[in-house]
Amino acid sequence: MASQLNLSQFDDIYEKTYADILKYVIIQCHNIDDTKDIMQETYLELWNLLQKKKLFDTNIKSYLIGIANHKIKKHYTLLQKMKTISLFEKNHQEIEWIDTLSDDFDIDDIIVKQDDWDHIWEYIKKKKNQDIPKVFYFYYVSELTIKEIAELLHVTESYIKHLIYRTLKELQDHFGKGEGR
Amino acid sequence: MTNREKLKTVVKEDINPQKYYHEIVKKIDKQRKYSFWKLSWIPICLLVAMSGVLLLKENPHRKNDVILHINELSTTMELPRFQWDEKKLLDHYFNIPYPYKIGNSIAIPADFNQNYYYIVYPEEKKDMQKEDHLVSYYLMVSTNGKDRFIRVAYSQDRNPFGEVFSPSEGKSTFLYGVELKIYQLENDYFVAFDDQHYHFGIETSHITEQELSEFLISILK
User: What average pLDDT does chain B have?
Assistant: First the structure.
């Protein structure tokens, strides 16, 4: 019975917190594909804590962010960090390129030969610069503005624009010509 | 559906907190089962330890590194006593087939100073002369002349205990590849088994379990 109560409490916490924790994990993770594992590890840790003590008086969101932070650090060994380190990083010198792309170039302007967005998303996720899938997630799924994303990732708006428009162009070139797979 | 919607659908399917939640709950369930399993080891270990103690203490009985499974007989059961009034006393055991392996030194209690050998006939044939064709079983008795004895009955044709014991009744004891059924009622043991082409029945009185064990080992090894 006690476990059932805890599970119900757990459900409630998950419902109220998952969106913010997910956002935090996506921002902090080195590879967007690790989101699932880190989220699971974070909430399992919370579950285990709920078995040991009551957390009613705790700011549960801060608590979860603390757990997530710990899990993220634990998740990546130094070697993994080196493997997944962004080659693009936040090299603001690259922003110069943005001038060559049109600002009003939109995702719906892309004409892909094979209308398979599963593969397009996989392609985006595999980018060495993991800011790209993160930006795509926040921009197209969370529907945040470029300004909000720039604040989340602590980068300039130009950098976000650059990533979006450059990647869209790449998608057009890659999938539009049917060379993607 | 626009490209934006298509991408959104795909990404939401991939990074899906509801799916994560189901995975988390599955893992919680696994943890619970594992915790239960871990905790369940405590009573299991206690149970095994207690069972071990009880098994060693009561049944099976371990004597001389041999485990005897002794089945308790009910006092209401018909006792498998050999019948005495149909026997012919012999002068020497040479007059009957020797039932044991040649060379075995038979371990009988030290105070057993009297030995008797009999041919036991079927009741209706006891007055007939051609014993060999009418033998019911042979009987060897060792005793202290008082209340302690070992009686060994054996026959190629029939179980000396008749129908009193069913072979499927009770736990078996295995000694040197021979399956024995051992029963106990108060101070008496009854043993039934087949060996050396004979059906054996052994009846003892007031001997210890240790003495029984030593005797059985000596005739079967």
Answer: 78
